[in-house]
Description:
This protein is mainly alpha-helical. The protein folds into two domains: about 5-60, DnaJ domain (Helix Hairpins), CATH 1.10.287; about 90-175, Up-down Bundle (Monooxygenase). The protein is built from seven helices and no strands. The chain is globular, with a radius of gyration of 21 Å. It comes from Colwellia psychrerythraea (strain 34H / ATCC BAA-681). GO terms for molecular function: ATPase activator activity; protein-folding chaperone binding. Co-chaperone involved in the maturation of iron-sulfur cluster-containing proteins. Seems to help targeting proteins to be folded toward HscA.
Amino acid sequence: xxxxxxxxxxxxxxxxxxxxxxxxxxxxxxxxxxxxxxxxxxxxxxxxxxxxxxxxxxxxxxxxxxxxxxxxxxxxxxxxxxxxxxxxxxxxxxxxxxxxxxxxxxxxxxxxxxxxxxxxxxxxxxxxxxxxxxxxxxxxxxxxxxxxxxxxxxxxxxxxxxxxxxxxxxxxxxx
Length: 175
């Protein structure tokens, strides 16, 4: 099952989330298990399976990074696992710099300003890299798909680092 076809939307990194949501609700109404309460056990099981598939498809397409990964997998791009090391040494250095920047927040004289700075840097870099990946996905050739795969992994790093920033913020201001 192709998720984009399921929701009758064009294969693209940019998705109209309102259209996606509307299609999702329409599909769920047709297969919702409650509609099959008086059906046979097999029909109920099929309804539950279809509903779960629609939920999975919706969750994948509404999340930009999951959507990008789905598109790349559909294009048979080999997705390295999370443990696979980056070949991009400049990005490895940037990872270390960002982690140091995050660690420095704890020891800053102005924690609020330091946190805002980290959040601003992460947001800016995430948006820039996301735009690059968006272009690469739209180009849809072997080189651009491979580059998009690398950038997707980088964006996942930024996403995880943002979670760490949120946790740090919670720990600093919960006291």
